[in-house]
Specification:
By secondary structure, the chain is mostly helical. The chain has seven helices and four strands; from the N terminus they run βαβαββααααα. Strand 3 (55-57) and strand 4 (63-64) form a beta hairpin. Bound molecules: glutathione. Residues 6, 10-12, 39, 51-54, 66-67 line the site of glutathione.
Length: 203
């Protein structure tokens, strides 16, 4: 297997590296130079038609190119420790639910700000700055919502899971692009401190 990715602060490849670290899988990442637009080169597009990272290429040439799908595949190959709920039907569904909420409620406005308001992406598309800036408030509002959900909880589901990995990488990327956690998000901050202390978070 070959895993293509990019170093931090890119959040999606980091999800896979954290999952790999949690499971102790021996799989190094081959970096794709995003600044040089290597992810849009024909060789990479042939592996990942979205022109993004991460991308996993199996020994037989089949590919996976969504971070959560890659982690789900690795979880099936290396079930311990389970990151997607293992054999517990409710846990599996609950983790799916949280991952979807992270993607749709938080990652979407973070990505909207990154693409349409951040100077680093200005040369890549026509930016609609008003739309981009509107994602500041949407991101803060989503973080406050997660903060409320995390009251009295150490993880999104019942124990550390892929959902926590998705939230961690999104919150960290948001902070890097200038969308920090609102001051009053004490539950989210406590969760973030605890999850960041796991050795895998250094990935
Ligand atoms: N849904 C994808 C998102 C992947 C993604 O946005 N990757 C970023 C790096 S974190 C990327 O390749 N950006 C370059 C681009 O979209 O052109 C996943 O989770 O795998």
């Amino acid at each position: 297997m070959k895993l293509y990715g990019a170093p931090n602060p890119a959040p999606s490849p980091r999800r896979v590296r954290i999952a790999i670290a949690e499971k102790g899988i021996d799989l190094a990442e081959t970096p794709v130079d995003l600044r040089a637009r290597a992810h849009k080169a024909p060789e990479h597009l042939a592996l990942n038609p979205a022109g993004q990272v991460p991308t996993l290429v199996l020994g037989d040439g089949r590919t996976l190119s969504e971070s959560v799908a890659i982690c789900r595949y690795l979880d099936a190959l290396h079930p311990a420790p389970p990151l997607f709920g293992g054999a517990d039907a409710f846990a599996v569904a609950e983790i799916d639910q949280w991952i979807r909420r992270v993607e749709l409620m938080l990652m979407l406005p973070v990505a909207g700000f990154w693409r349409h308001a951040h100077p680093f992406t200005a040369s890549l598309l026509t930016q609609y700055k008003d739309y981009g800036e509107s994602n500041r408030a949407a991101t803060a509002s989503a973080m406050r919502w997660f903060d409320r959900q995390l009251a009295g909880r150490a993880s999104l589901g019942d124990g550390f899971s892929m959902a926590d990995i998705c939230l961690l990488t999104t919150v960290d990327f948001a902070a890097w692009i200038g969308l920090p956690m609102p001051e009053e998000c004490t539950n989210l901050r406590a969760w973030h401190t605890a999850i960041s202390a796991r050795p895998s978070a250094a990935a």
